[in-house]
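Journal club prep, notes for RB
We'll compare a predicted complex against what the paper describes. Inputs for the PMV case:
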Amino acid sequence: MRVKASAPGKVILFGEHSVVYRGPAIVLAIDRRVEVLAEPRGDDLLFIEAPDLGVSGFFHEGRYHPAAGGRRGEGVLRPLWVAVERTMERLGRKTGVSLSVASEIPIAVGLGSSAAASVATVAAVGELLGGGLTPEEISLLAYEAERVVHGTPSGIDNTIATYGGGLVYERGKGMERLESLREIPLVIGNTGRSRSTGELVGRVRRLREKYRTLVDPIIDAIAHIARLGREALLEGDLWRMGELMRMNHGLLWALGVSSPELDRLVNAALEAGALGAKLTGAGGGGCMIALAEPDRLGAVSTAIERSGGSSLRAGISRSGVRVWRVEG
Ligand code: PMV
């Protein structure tokens, strides 16, 4: 038997970084997915290939043995090893597995590719071993893998990759699914500079330790923006969303997680008529998002590209993780 599973990437509309401490983040699944093909092996090895990244290798008793791409493969593939191990422990079954990972989501730029890969891996391996995992279990097992990449992530990425659509996520309080969202006219601008979420979360933590009385009000203001952003999103009020995005970017800048490239793309989008623009995800590079009236989206994409970014138009993905058996 062979099984395939896929899961979507995401953009954070409001509330990144503040969500690590308190308050909500608003997140949308995007219609770019990671797909994982899983098949059983005759031995007890885990083989993983990610042809898009030019890496593949084996895990044997927790040790990585590269087949292609050298040791750099270990960084991206180890979380998937964790995802497989946890899934097998949960289901009480162990077997050799080969995984092939194909991604439409650029990696390490804040679009949730690692969580989408972990969620799809858990779902595919779970099905291969007899199935029965609930979405909540899939998300939790994928979170274990996310912890390897990000330290103590808030859990947004694995949650949205599991459920899709739009979510309000609050650490420790769980999530609210936003039903019947209208299409949001968004452009994603990618600086192309990869960064580490864990490192940027650490940067904010250190700033907070140094200037607690300054940083806490900024975190509270971002949390408040996210609450107002939820209302504006549900009302489909693009103007208000735009205004809130601009404020959110300014506050993230104050926390030290923007970058000259991100600011350049944000400013270019606003000059081209975007209603709002902000960095999305951890910052320090990675991606920004711009919201614009549908007839301005083209101009905003062009402005982003002229300023050195690559642009991606993304719709909301209504579906979260999907899993199916493959014949042959
Ligand atoms: O991994 P990213 O770039 O999507 O960032 C996640 C958002 C943060 O709030 C910065 C971290 C977290 O775990 O929520």
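Talking point for the session: Residues 12, 16-17, 19-20, 110, 112, 150, 153-154, 156-157, 197, 201, 281-282, 286 surround PMV (CB under 6 Å).
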